[in-house]
Amino acid sequence: MNVHNMMEEAVQDLLDSQWQYLNLSCHCDECRADVLALSLNRLKPHYVRQRTGLMYTKAGLMTEQSRATILTAIVESAKIVSASPHHSQTSDERHK
Question: 20 to 30 A from 86, CA-CA: which of 32, 36, 71, 74?
Fold first, then answer.
């Protein structure tokens, strides 16, 4: 039986579109993954197992309120990751 967390897809899509606008000390892939993981931990998952459930849930996650909730989680997570990145190099060293 396959299940899929639609919230992960919704967060990833919004993170992709807003990544360049986030005020982060580092925009590396590790920091991006940390922001994604932290955001998902702050949000309620939406699991589906059938195509009809997928479409219904996707429509629900596209509302203005849902997008605002997801964006808030992303911004809060970005602040935490920016203040304490989990990699050992500075952002200048990572972007060379």
Answer: 71
Domain span at residue 81 reads 4-88
pLDDT digits (tens, 9 = 90+) for 1-20: 588 888 998 999 999 999 99
Is residue 54 assigned to a domain?
Answer: yes
pLDDT digits (tens, 9 = 90+) for 31-60: 999 999 999 999 999 888 876 666 777 777
**What total number of domains does the chain contain?**
1
Q: What single letter denotes the amino acid at residue 15?
A: L
Q: Is residue 94 part of a domain?
A: no
Burial of 43 (0-12, 13-18, 19+ CB in 10 A): buried
User: Please, are residues 48 and 1 in contact by the beta-carbon 8 Å criterion?
Assistant: no
Is residue 56 in some structural domain? yes
pTM metric for this prediction: 0.81
Distance, CA of 81 to CA of 63 (rounded, Å): 27
